[in-house]
């Protein structure tokens, strides 16, 4: 497996949208293509590849403070979940944020994935809530870098 940066205007970026749609939206009867991804033009996007096939993706965005970065849309192809790909992607995103001066990383985790993030050192804070674009229970989580 190879993890590499994905450019916003590349074919790999379009492939990342398709993967996110398959894993995160179609099971909810939704389409990711109805969402606005313009903020990702300034984000750090990583893809995990087996040969030419994208098997995972994660997005890291800066927050207003700059000391905090935010993980969005971390997902792994359902056929290989629990194989360590998500953990490797998350570590790579954390390393990137740390190297750029971030001291904390945050994310909105589906409650169903909360255990994964806790095993990776994240702590929940706040109440459980639903997002408009993903109407399943979510919780805010953070980790010191």
TrEMBL record:
Domain N-acetyltransferase: from-to ranges: 1-145
Gene Ontology MF terms: acyltransferase activity, transferring groups other than amino-acyl groups
InterPro entries on file: Acyl_CoA_acyltransferase, GNAT_dom, YpeA/RimI_acetyltransf
Documented EC number(s): 2.3.1.-
Enzyme class (EC, first level): transferase
Gene3D superfamilies given in the database record: 3.40.630.30
Pfam families per UniProt: Acetyltransf_10 (PF13673)
Keyword vocabulary terms for this entry: Acyltransferase, Transferase
Protein name: GNAT family N-acetyltransferase
Organism: Enterococcus asini
